[in-house]
Amino acid sequence: MGRRQAGRALARPVDAGGDGQAALRWARRDGGQVKTAHREAGGATVWDVARKAGVSAMTVSRVINGNTSVSVKNREKVMRAIGELNYEVNVAARAARIGTLRVGLLYSNPSEAFLSAFLVGALTECGQSGAHLILEHCDNLKSQRKAIDRLIDDGADGILVPPPLCDSKSALKMLAELGIPSVAVATARPSPQMSAVRIDDYEGALTMMRHLLALGHTDIGFIKGDPEHTPTQLRYQAFIDAMRGAGLDVPAERVAQGMFTYRSGLLAARELLGQATRPTAIFASNDDMAAAVIAVAHGMHLQVPDDLTVCGFDDTPVATTVWPELTTIHQPITDMARSAVALLIEHVRAQRSGHAYDRRHQLMPYTLVVRESTSGAE
Question: Where is the HTH lacI-type domain (predicted)?
Fold first, then answer.
């Protein structure tokens, strides 16, 4: 199945309670394995065309997207560079299908649970809005540029940027250079140059800490997330502030570094639970790592929550597939994805009609969800 065909299949409406993992498998097939022929051959990129033409990448993007605001002189320079570099983009076909809005999704999230919930929301909103969803996976700086270029080549009118790329200075800079409508999702510090959808990560983590302290826990371990992701910093700061506010110290050995992945959670849990005296509770920065803590605890014949209270953050599907089910902070990931798509479509339509668009930062509500993994300290 070709890239464009796969993108259209993904754009069909889905049941919000359906198989998010199946959607994730589709995303990986489309974004991770299928490549256009000229990319495999090391063909030119938008940035190559911009350098050759002596214009900005934004100008090249506008020409490719049929934007009439580009001067005749610059348009000719871009078209000449496209021809000389053999840049494979069918400008006529792109202009002809301008009525069909295409939403690009640039992702590299290591958490399958987060990405699965995000895809359900994005697919649902695209399906109801009549838009197509195009997906591209990337890892490092070099692959970010190539993935963005592929999204533009495939006709993306705007791009969604979920974590951790929502905090990638390089990725955000590239999108700003292109001038393409973009929405960051789940960043704790949104850029004024881009619309964003998020929750208050600090207050969410503070709410969880108040819950643990109310249960009588005073010896609490904490697992940090990816240090490059801004919510990590706010969730950790809330932990520190809550402990200090309760007059409690936080020994260095009670804090372990994770990366928001299940595997990193296993390592962090072994570090925290392998000490001579164990904490009575562990607060992990996301559900994947919290699930790993439960697995390690079971392996050590510890009962959760009788011997160890465990809680997470996000309320992804894994929170209700582990035993016991996780107490967590519900981040409405599916609804956040839907709102991000709606904001992106609004921006694209304003741009197409020649109207100014003010970037919007939308704050979504969070909820403390108490389940069986937490109980009072003895």
Answer: 44-98
DSSP 200-240: -HHHHHHHHHHHHHHTT--SEEEEE--TTSHHHHHHHHHHH
Residue-wise pLDDT for 234-251, tens only, equals 999 999 999 999 999 999
- At residue 281 the predicted structure's pLDDT band, cuts being 50, 70 and 90, is very high
Angle, nearest 10°, between helix axes 333-352 and 112-129?
Answer: 40
Give the separation between CA 51 and CA 53, rounded to whole angstroms.
6
Distance of CA 306 to the CA centre of its chain: 34
Full domain range(s) for residue 13 = 3-43+88-198+336-363
Question: Would you place residue 89 in the very low, low, confident or very high pLDDT band (cuts 50, 70, 90)?
Answer: low
Number of domain units in the chain:
2
Name the DSSP letter for residue 32. I
CA distances from 174 to 57, 89, 136, 243 (A): 9, 19, 15, 40
Contacts 24+ apart (CB under 8 A), 124-128: 124/13, 124/14, 124/16, 124/334, 124/338, 125/337, 125/338, 125/341, 125/342, 126/11, 126/341, 127/11, 127/12, 127/13, 127/14, 128/13
The tokens for 288 are 């994947």
**pLDDT tens readout for residues 102-137:** 999 998 876 778 888 899 999 989 888 889 899 998
The single-letter code of the amino acid at 81 is A
Average pLDDT, the chain: 83
**Residues 198, 185 contacting (CB under 8 angstroms):** yes
3-state secondary structure of 94: helix
Residue 347 phi, psi dihedral angles, 5° rounding: -65, -45
Specify whether 194 is located in the same domain as 206.
Answer: no
pTM over 0.85: no
In angstroms, the CA 156 to CA 344 distance is 11
Distance CA 275, CA 270 (A): 9
Residue 270 counted as domain residue: yes
Q: Are 9 and 23 in contact (CB under 8 A)?
A: no
**Residues 17 and 150 both lie in one domain:** yes
C-alpha 88/C-alpha 284 separation (Å) is: 46
